[in-house]
Amino acid sequence: MDDLLAARATMGFSLGFHIVFAAVGMTMPFLMSAAHYRYLTRRDPVYLELTRMWMKGVAILFAVGAVSGTVLSFELGLLWPGFMRHAGAIIGMPFSWEGTAFFLEAIAIGLFLYGWKRMPPWWHWFAGLMVGVSGFASGIFVVAANAWMNSPTGFDWVDGAALNVDPVAAMFNRAWLHQSLHMQLAALQAVGFAVGGIHAWLLLRGRAPDLNRKALKIAMLLGAIASLLQPFAGHFAGERVAALQPAKLAAIEGHFTTSTWAPLTLGGIPDAEAREMKGGWKIPGLLSLLAHRDPRAEVIGLDRFPRDEWPPLVVTHVAFQIMVAIGSLLALLGACHLWLRRRAAFPRWYLWTLVGAAPLGLIAMEAGWVVTEVGRQPWIIYGILKTKDAVTPVPGMVYHFWLFLILYLGLAAATAWLLHRQIRAAHSKFGG
Amino acid sequence: MIDLLIFFIGVSLLLYVLMGGSDFGAGILELLPAGPLRDRQKHVINRAMGPVWEANHMWMILIVVILFMGFPMIFTTLMIALHLPMLALLVGIVVRGAAFTFRHYDAIQDATSQRVYTWLFGLSSLWTSFWLGIIAASLNRGIIDPEAREVWQAYFAPWWGAYPLAVGAFIACIYAFLASIYLVGETDDPALRRRFLRLGAVFNLLVVAMGGIVFAASLRERESLATAFLRSPANLIVLGFATALFIALWRLVAQRRTFLTRAVAAGQVALILTGWWLLYAPNAVLTARGPLSFYATAAPPATLRQLVLALLVGSAFIFPSLYFLLRVFKTADGQGLHPPHSERDAKP
Ligand code: HDD
Ligand code: HEM
Ligand code: HEM
Question: Is the CB of A26 under 6 A from ligand 3?
Answer without folding.
Answer: yes
